[in-house]
Amino acid sequence: MELVFALVIGALTASGVYLVLRARTFPVVVGLTLLSYGVNLFLFSSGRLATGQQPVIGTAANYSDPLPQALVLTAIVIGFAMTAFVVVLSLRNLADNEDDHVDGQKPYKSPAPEEEEEVTGK
Amino acid sequence: MSLPLVVLLPFLGALAAPLFAQGGRTAIAIASSVPALIALAALYPHWQTLADGGVVLHSYEWLPALGLSFSFRLDGLSLLFALLILIIGLLIILYSRYYLKAHENVGKFYALLLCFKGSMLGIVLSSNLLLMMIFWELTSLTSFLLISFWTHKQDARRGARMALAVTGGGGLALLAGILIIGNIVGSFELDDVLAAGDQIKAHALYPVALTLVLLGAFTKSAQFPFHFWLPHAMQAPTPVSAYLHSATMVKAGIFLMARLYPALAGTEQWFYMVSFTGMATLLLGAYIAMFKHDLKGLLAYSTVSHLGLITLLFGMGTELAAVAAVFHVINHATFKASLFMAAGIIDHETGTRDMRRINGLWRYMPHTATLAMVAASSMAGVPLLNGFLSKEMFFAEALQLNLPGLWAWLPPIVATLAGIFAVAYSARFIHDVFFNGKPVDLPIYPPHEPPRYMKFPVEILVFACIMVGIFPAVSVGPLLYMAASATLGGNVPDYQLAIVHGFNLPLLMSFVAFFGGLLMYSQRQRFFNFHARFREIDEKAVFEAIISRIVDLANRFTARVENGSLQRYAMLLVVSVIAVAALPLINLGIFIGESGFSPVDWPTAILAGTLILCAIATAVMHRERFYALVLLSVVGLIVALAFARFSAPDLAMTQLSVEVVTIVLLMLALYYMPSWTPVETSNGRRFRDIVIALAAGTGMTLVTLAMLTQPFTSISDFFLENSKPGGGGTNVVNVILVDFRGFDTLGEITVLAIAALGIYAMLKHTALTPPPGDGQGHPWTRDAYPLMLRQIARPMLPLALMVSAFIFLRGHNMPGGGFIAGLITSVALILQYIASGMIWTQDRIPLRYHNVIGLGLLFATIAGAGSFAFGYPFLTSTFGYITWPVVGKFEVASAMVFDLGVYLTVIGATLLALVSIGRLSPHSAIKSKKESA
C-alpha cells in the first residue's frame, strides 16, 4: 500500500512540476493544483496510512493521527485561496497585457547560444 | 547632562544654520560658532576634575538588551580631542567665511560641517563602544558629503566615493571587532572594556578582534595600504581638508588606538602590526610628498606620513612612546591645519595650487608667507617649534626599540630617512612657493594678501606652534599629562618637556635629517628624474576599475539569473530544491524502512492507478485546456476518496467541496482565457522539463516511501486523550482546529480573508471580454441559464443550507465543522449564480461578502477574546450541555462561536473570489440583466 501511495504522490509531483514549468498561466495554475494535491497527501501520510481508524472518539478501537489531518484540512482551504489568487492574477495579466504568458509580455525567446556569448563577453 | 549636550549641540546647530544663510556668510558663520562656544563653556567646569585624575560620566539607558547605552565619558584623552575639534572647528568656521564664495551653498556647507563636528565629538566622548560606532559611521558619511561638496566636479565625487568605500569598509571591520570585544568582556562600556585588558588579550579570539579593530583604525587614519583615499579626498574645499583630513577625522583611528590602548596593546601582535604599518606609512608618505606638484597633494602625503609616525609610536608599546604619540597629535593638528589654511589662501589668491606655477609669492603676500614658513618649519622639525619637540621624542623612542639583531637598526634608519624627506618637502613648500623666481602664468595676477580675518585662524595656530615650541611645559603640559594619563590608564612615565635635552643621539639624528633634507632639496632635480622613471599608479583609476568590475560582475550575474522570465525562475527554484534535498537524502541512505509494506486491496489499487493516469494525462494534454481541467477534477475527486479510504472523513469532505469550488473557479477563468495553449517551447526544452519533473517526482516517491515505512511516534496522544474531557468534542480533528490549535486556525482564516480581498482589489477596475466562442470556433450557447438547471438549483439551496447546518452543528463530535459547512453553503450559493446569473442572484441574496468575511473574523476573534472576560488566556474554550426540544441533549461549546466565524469567513472569501471573477465581463452583466427582466 505504501508503495502505491508513494507512486501517487510522485505522479502528482512530476505532473505538477512539469506544468508549473510551462509558459502560459493556465497550465501553471493546473500544475500548482496538482502539486498541492500531492503535498496535501504527503503531509497527511506523515500520520501513516490507517484503515477504519478515523479519529472520532468512540468509533474505532485505534485512532489514526489527528494532527496531520487538522493541518491538511486548513492546508486544503488555504490551497484553494492560493489557487484562486493565482487564477485571478493570471486573469488580471490577461486583461492588462492581452496575453496569458507567464512573463506578462510577448513570449519569452530563449537566448540563442551566440547571444548568450555576447552577454558574457561584455 | 553637559556631555550629551556637547555632542548634541552641533547637530541642533546644523538644523538651525541654514536658516541664517539668507543673512549672508558672516551671519551664518557667527550662528555656526554658537554650539562650539557653548560646548567649550560646558566643558570648562570639568577641567579640575580631570586634572585631579577624575573621569566624568553621563549615562542614559537606550537599548540595554543590546548593551547599547547613551553614555558619555570625559577623561584627559577625550578632553584633548574635544578641544582640538572645538577650537580648530571655530577657526575653520571663521576661515570658511572668507574661503567660500557668496554664491555657494553656504547653508549646506555649515550644516554639514556642524554635523561632522557633532559626530566627531560623539566618537571621542562616547563611553559605549556601540554608540561610538554610530558616530564613527556618521563621520564617514559627513566626510563623504563634505568631500563631494562641489558636486559638479567629477574628481570630487570620485574622491568622496573612494573615501566612503574605504572608511566605510573599515567601519564594518571595526564593528565586527567591537562586537567580539563586547562578547569577550560582556559589556560595551568603556570602563569595563579597559579594565578587562588581560582577559581580552588572553582570549582565543584576541588576534581576530585586534585585526578587525586595527583595520577600522588604519582605514580611517589612512595607513598603508589604505592611505590612497586621503590624497583624493583633497578634492574637498580646503577648510574641509584642514579640518577633517588633517586635524580631526583622520585622527579618529589614532584616537581609537589610544582609547583601546590599555585593552589591546602590549602584545607581540599589536607591536608588529601597528609599528610596521606605521613605519611603512611614515616612509611612503614622506617619500611621495616630495614629488607632488600640487600644494594640497604635498600636504596630504605629508599628513599620511605624520599619521604613520603617530601610529608607529603607538605600535612601539612603550609608555614614553605613547606620550610622544599624544604630543604629536596636538602638534601635527596645529601646524598641519595652519598649513592647509595657508595653502587655501594661496589657492584662493592665485587660482592654482600647482607649485610649478606658484613661485616668488614672498613679494606679493609677505604676511601669509611668514606664517606658512613658520608652520612648515615646524613640520620639518626645526628647533623652537612644536614639531621639533615631538620629533625629538620620536627619535629617542626609535632608538629605544629593541629589535633583535640587525633589525634594531631599522627604526632609527626609517625615522631619520623620514626626517630627511620631511625636511625636503617642507623646504620645497617654503622655497618653491615663496621664492624660486617669479610666478608662472597665474590665473589671478597679481596675487595679494587675503582679507584680514582669513589669516586670523592661521595666526592663532602658528602662535600655538611657537608657544608650545618654546614653553612646552607651561602651554601644553597639563593637557598632555591628562591625555597621556588617560591613554595609559594612569601609569604616566617620567618625561620632560624641554626644548633641548642636551647633546645626544636624537639631536644628532635631527641634524642629519635637517641638513640631509636641505641637501636633498637642493639636488631635487635628480630625485625628480629618478622618480619619473617609475610609472605612477593612479589609485583612483585602479579603485574605479575595481569598483566598476565588481558592479559589472554583479550586473552580469543578475542578468543571468534574473532575466525577467518567470519560467526560468520556476525552473531554478525547482532545480535548487531538488539539489538541496538530494544530498541529505542520499546521505541518509534509507529508502525502505523497517516497518515494511501493508497489503494492497484491489479497489484502492485501481483508483490509485486511475489517479496516476489522470495526473499524467493532465500534464500530457494540457494544451487542450478544457480536457485538462476535466482530468484534473478526476484527480481531485480520487484524492478525496483517498482521504476517506485512509481514515480521514473530515479531509474527504473538505477536499470534495473544495474540489467543486476549484473546478468552478477554473471553468470560470477558462471562459475568459484562450481554450488551448500554443506550442512555444522547443523539444529540447520540453525534454529538460520532463527530466526535472521526473527527478522531482522520483524524489517525492522515495521520500514518501522512506517516511511511510518508518515506525513513528506522535504527539497526538495528548489530543486523543484530552479531546473529550478538555475540548468537549469527540471529533478530534475539529477540536484541534477550533480549540487546541485555535490560534493557528484564526491565522489561517485571516489569510483566507486577505486572499479574497486581494482578489477583489485586483479585479475591481478590470474588464475582460471573453472570446466569442470556444476554441473550436463554436459559439457559446444562447441559453446561458438553462431552464432545467434553474429549476433544480432553486430548491437545492434550502436543502443544502440545512445540510450545512447539520454538518456545522455535529462538527464538534462527528466529521464536519465550520470549514466543511462553509464550503457546502458556498457551493450551494455558487450554484444559484451559475444557474440564474449574477443579477438575479444578487437581487435575492443581497449579501455583501466583504461584510460576511468581516463578521466571520469578528466572531472568531470575539470567541477568542471572550475568554479574557473570565480571566483565561486568548481562545480558551469552555462547553456545557443543554437540552433542546426535539433534538434532545446537546452539547454547546464556546468553540462553536469560533467555528461560526470560520464558517462565515469561508463563505465570504469563497464567494467574494468567485463573484469578482464572474463580474469581470461587462457582457454577462448586461446579458443577465436582460434575461432576468
From TrEMBL, chain A:
The keyword Zinc-finger does not apply. It is a multi-pass membrane protein. It comes from the Bacteria. It is found in: Cell membrane. Keywords: Cell membrane, Membrane, Transmembrane, Transmembrane helix. InterPro entries: CPA3_antiporter_subunitC (IPR050601), NUOK/Mnh_C1-like (IPR039428). Residues 98-122 are annotated as: Disordered. Residues 113-122 have a biased composition (Acidic residues). The chain crosses the membrane at residues 70-91. PANTHER family: ANTIPORTER SUBUNIT MNHC2-RELATED. This is Na+/H+ antiporter subunit C. It comes from Marinobacter guineae.
UniProtKB/TrEMBL annotation, chain B:
One of its GO terms (biological process) is monoatomic ion transport. It is a multi-pass membrane protein. Keywords: Antiport, Cell membrane, Ion transport, Membrane, Transmembrane, Transmembrane helix, Transport. Signal peptide: none annotated. Residues 685-765 form the MrpA C-terminal/MbhE domain. Residues 611-674 form the MrpA C-terminal/MbhD domain. The chain crosses the membrane at residues 76-95, 107-125, 131-150, 162-185, 205-230, 242-264, 270-291, 298-316, 322-346, 367-386, 406-425, 460-483, 503-521, 569-590, 602-620, 627-646, 652-671, 691-712, 745-763, 792-811, 817-840, 852-875, 895-920. The keyword Ion transport applies. Residues 66-110 form the NADH-Ubiquinone oxidoreductase (complex I) chain 5 N-terminal domain. GO terms for cellular component: plasma membrane. InterPro entries: CPA3_Na-H_Antiporter_A (IPR050616), MnhB (IPR007182), MrpA_C/MbhD (IPR025383), MrpA_C/MbhE (IPR046806), ND/Mrp_TM (IPR001750), Proton_antipo_N (IPR001516). Residues 788-911 form the Na+/H+ antiporter MnhB subunit-related protein domain. Residues 126-407 form the NADH:quinone oxidoreductase/Mrp antiporter transmembrane domain. It is found in: Cell membrane; Membrane. GO terms for molecular function: antiporter activity. PANTHER family: NA(+)/H(+) ANTIPORTER SUBUNIT (PTHR43373), NA(+)_H(+) ANTIPORTER SUBUNIT A (PTHR43373:SF1). This is Monovalent cation/H+ antiporter subunit A.
